[in-house]
Amino acid sequence: MKKKETVEIQLRKFAFDPSKDKIVQDLGFNKNHPYFEKKADQSVETLKKYGFPHELLKIQTIRSKK
Amino acid sequence: MDFTFESSGPNGKIIKAVMYTPREIDGILYYNLGFGDLNPETGKIDDLSISNNDDRHKILSTVAATVLEFTTYFPNALIYAEGSTSSRTRLYQMGLSANINYIKRNLDIYGLAKGHWHIFEKNVNYEAFMALRK
User: Fold this and answer.
1) Alpha-carbon gap, residue A49 to A42, rounded angstroms
2) ipTM
3) pLDDT digits (tens, 9 = 90+) for B32-66
């Protein structure tokens, strides 16, 4: 009989300062984790090359003005 | 912001980590979605591992759930995702396609193909994805 599988999501602690509208650096084990930093840097290279979807930027701009 | 969840299956328990890392290009802020297996002893992330825990669909659905959770806090955040390999990117694509109706009700999502962004559609191979909460 196949073993029953479960996936449980557990939200790890995070810190969010709504007054500053940004993430506070209090992310526990993977604060500034080199792997995620490297991946984020790679995404910068890709987006510098290809840009952002214009439609998404339009939506984002309209919302931010409201 | 980071999330972890546990994959339980025939190969035991594997901790999965999802991280949203902010970056800015020419004044445009976005968050890179990073995902991989967390080694709790070393703290290292393995994004090339194939855990074969027979729960791929659940894992991809859970990663998608973190996008919705994240954008609850950051409703105007652009989310960028790209697999560590082309096969991993296709895996993301399969996960998106399997949940496309639910995802499109909540997110505007685009795929990067041949150097251009397109509205995400099933059965198209993309190199990367970008999403914004509706």
Assistant:
1) 11
2) 0.84
3) 998 888 777 777 777 666 666 666 777 777 788 88
Number of helices and strands in chain B (H, E): 3, 8
Contact (Cβ atoms closer than 8 angstroms) between residue B111 and residue B117: yes
Tell me if B76 sits within 8 A of B29, measured CB to CB: no
Q: Is A33 on the interface with B (CB under 8 A)?
A: yes
State pLDDT tens for residues A6-32: 333 333 333 343 444 333 333 444 556
Task: Find all residues with CB under 8 Å of B14, minimum gap 6, and list them.
Answer: B6, B7, B37, B51, B53
A52 and B28 within 8 Å at the Cβ level: the answer is yes
Rounded to whole angstroms, the Cα distance separating A54 from B77 reads: 14
pTM (predicted TM-score): 0.79
Residue B87: which residues within 8 A CB-CB, separation 6 or more?
A: none
Helices (H), A1-66: 34-50, 54-65
Q: How many Cβ atoms sit within 10 Å of the Cβ of residue B33?
A: 25
> Across the interface, which of A12, A40, A53 has its CB nearest the CB of B117?
A53
Closest CA to B69 of B14, B24, B106, B34: B106
Query: How far apart are the C-alpha atoms of A54 and B22, rounded to whole Å?
Result: 19
